[in-house]
Amino acid sequence: MTHAIRIYEPGGAGNLRWESVDVGDPDVGQARIRQSAVGLNFIDIYMRSGLYPLPSLPAILGMESAGVVESIGPDVDEVAVGDRVAYCMVPGAYAEERLVSAEKLLKLPDDIDDKTAAAMMLKGLTAHYLLFRSYAVKPGDRILVMAAAGGVGLILCQWGRHLGAEVIGCVGSESKAELAKANGAHHVILYDQESIPERVREITDGRGVAVSYDSVGQATFEASLDSLQPFGVLVTYGNASGPVEPFSPAILAPRGSLYVTRPTLATHTATRELLTEGAERLFKVVSDGAVGIAVHQTYALSDTATAHRDLESRATTGASVLIP
Length: 324
What we know:
The structure is a single chain. The chain is an alpha/beta fold. Helix content is 29%, strand content 27%. It contains nine helices and 16 strands. Strands 3, 5, 6, 7, 8, 15 and 16 form a seven-stranded mixed sheet that branches. Helix 3 links the parallel strand 9 and strand 10. Helix 2 packs across helix 3 and helix 2 packs across helix 8.
């Protein structure tokens, strides 16, 4: 018998329960994974709270992890017993052991350890689709990164700079400003002390940015729009401050014929081809040292409730990892 964090109804972090579960043997196309590190993400909180409804209850939360293949079922070609692997966007990660469809598993390079892998799969593949698909960043582009000291934000700052962009990061404190600068941001803006659009115009000589990558949501939606250059793109990909209110597309015209998109990593990893394309790029920039993965908090998996409370209160920076 193994253990997992399970939830029986939506609500606060106190609803998370540490319980024994029966994993079973892998079926056709499946692998059984002994997990060594589990990633913590805002999507876990959205699911726990009910913002993103779960298909059924009780449920095991968590979307990414790293570990070792313990056994495989019939018709598995992607991995073998003993392989170090990682995955993301596969619900049920808050567990010591679990079954995973083998087509969702990625073999880890030897130079990427398990904690790093668990911290980077969802956040790194999110950064990948933002930078390469939602708006394809080109050398010389000016880009705006909300929550620049968060898990995705730190990767966006580094990877965006590596691609030749001028990176403007928005943060909530002086300490987070220093962190964003140390991870690639050329400029930083403090949410509570400065007008984001005004500072963006100062930094860009009045033009604005090509894209705003906004995971904050409601609180920064207008500021993101007002920071864009003509034909600019607002990529709203998270709701840390609450969901964006419904709006009329007519507001985009007078601001410069703008574009707004709301992508999700599920779409960008829906096929094996899409998944491996993103993972190959991610593994390369991490292995080459162009992007460092900052694991700033570590919690026991059994103490996931504390990790959720810290993430919700914005007490964390970079990535957090749960250890089974």
